[in-house]
Write a structure and sequence with these properties.
Blueprint lengths: L1 H4 L10 H7 L16 H34 L13 E2 L7 E6 L1 E7 L1 E3 L2 E2 L6 E8 L2 E2 L5 E4 L11 E7 L8 E9 L4 E9 L2 E6 L6 E8 L3 E7 L4 E3 L4 H4 L6 E6 L3 E9 L14 E6 L17
């Protein structure tokens, strides 16, 4: 009977509910397995990832827009007190060029259209050297303008004509500006755009004329009929309707040979003083007697 006094009254309370209190309200038989994540935590991570991706995309787009703006902007230069001296071919380091007939280049008072010299280029000198030796006095130097103004885009064409013995050899060109000295350089090898040679020797029954061209040309060949007789079988001679001359048409990079029989085999008709043959380029503004060359006509 005493035990009945200490008995707990009837109640719906289950002792296992205590365990549930310490397990966050979850049933002991429903403890999450390892690796399980609640839907709420998954949703948070997904939202955070979406925010990060959107932020990165926004930054990337902003960078692209900024780059486009920078590329389309025109640069602004402060030219106050600036001095520019440039060229279309020459440079501070100097390049190498092969040209026909003569040397020509431009000198300028600007770096580009936005950077123009604010100081006048009073003058500029041109020096031509071969193997370190000054040969300027042997050349003819022509300047379109001897000075260049300040504050406006300007340039001058410089042309250098050479004697025959300076062809086919490297020539160093050096141009210096004043009053501020800027030195521009370049190395040029000048080859004739066309030429001819006459080969003969005493005792030979005939002599050979070679005409060659590095550009398309038409040339007129004439000869002294008291010294030479043209080979009538040559196509160029056959096509001629004039005694003592005929026309040669050459494409760039080609040449032709014509033979002449000699009236006097003891003579050397190739001697310049004989004037046995003359070749002139026709049909262009530079029509003139062509340069006589020795050796291989392709050199």
């Amino acid at each position: 009977m005493g035990s009945e006094k200490n008995a707990l009254p009837d109640s719906d309370f289950d002792p296992q509910d205590i365990s549930a209190l310490f397990n966050g309200g979850e049933d002991e038989d429903e403890v999450p397995e390892r690796g399980y994540r609640s839907p709420r935590k998954k949703s948070r991570k997904k939202t955070l990832l979406t925010i990060l991706i959107c932020a990165a995309a926004s930054l990337l787009l902003a960078g692209v827009v900024f780059a486009v703006i920078r590329l389309t902007e025109k640069p602004v230069y402060d030219n106050t007190g600036s001095f520019y001296f440039s060229s279309d071919l020459l440079s501070a380091d100097g390049g190498e060029f092969t040209v026909y007939n003569e040397i020509s280049f431009r000198v300028n008072n600007f770096a580009d259209k936005l950077r123009v010299s604010e100081s006048e280029i009073d003058s500029y000198s041109v020096k031509i050297s071969r193997n370190g030796a000054d040969v300027t006095d042997l050349c003819s130097v022509t300047k379109e303008a001897g000075s260049l103004p300040a504050g406006t885009v300007a340039s001058s064409l410089v042309t250098v004509s050479l004697p025959d013995d300076l062809f086919n050899t490297p020539l160093e060109v050096e141009v210096s500006s004043r009053p501020t000295e800027i030195v521009l350089r370049g190395t040029f090898t000048v080859v004739p755009s066309w030429g001819w040679s006459l080969t003969d020797e005493a005792g030979s029954v005939c002599c050979k004329l070679v005409v060659w061209a590095n550009e398309d040309i038409t040339a007129r060949v004439s000869w002294d009929e008291t010294l030479l007789i043209a080979d009538k079988n040559d196509p160029n001679v056959k096509a001629s309707d004039t005694d003592g001359s005929f026309t040669v048409v050459l494409a760039a990079g080609t040449g032709t040979e014509i033979y002449f029989f000699k009236n006097d085999i003891t003579a050397d008709c190739s001697a310049p003083e004989m004037s046995a043959v003359t070749v002139e380029k026709t049909g262009s503004s530079s029509a003139a007697a062509g340069p006589r060359t020795d050796g291989n006509p392709e050199n």
